Amino acid sequence: MSAARNGEAFDTASGLPVSMRRADRDMPWYEFACAFVDMKWPHVAATTRRTHAEALMTVTMAMFANMRGKASDKLIRSALVRWGFNTSRRNDQKIPADVAAALRWVEGHTRPISAPAKPDILRFVLDRRKVRLIEGSELTLAPVHAKVRRDGYHRAVPGPTGRGLGVRGVS
Asked: Is the whole-model pTM more than 0.70?
């Protein structure tokens, strides 16, 4: 009743207010990122797969809902890039026990994909400008933003894209 009173649009297929349909389709970030990798995997080169994995790992590290029981950042980064965001290895039976445990933790502790709709969470994710890669080198997010724009990730992820939040270079 209140949705109709507030003038909210309704989904013609389900009859539900649009806000309720969005909530139905919300999923954890890690699940969404894995589905995205699986969709792109057969159509991209190995180097592009690695770039996707590193970019998604960076965002994933900023999307944890809490830190209780978290493994080391180095283990999680390695697990995400080498196993979690690798379609052909994710469900491998030979996955090391510590990697499997780290990925289970990530699976249960990432925010929903709607979380960046909140400006404070979006700001936190975008402020993660430098991250330490598996090898110990640093990655600056400026090239990742260019990659995200070029590959269209910004179209895949719901929520605000930085407009009006003082985010330069993100559209």
From this structure: no
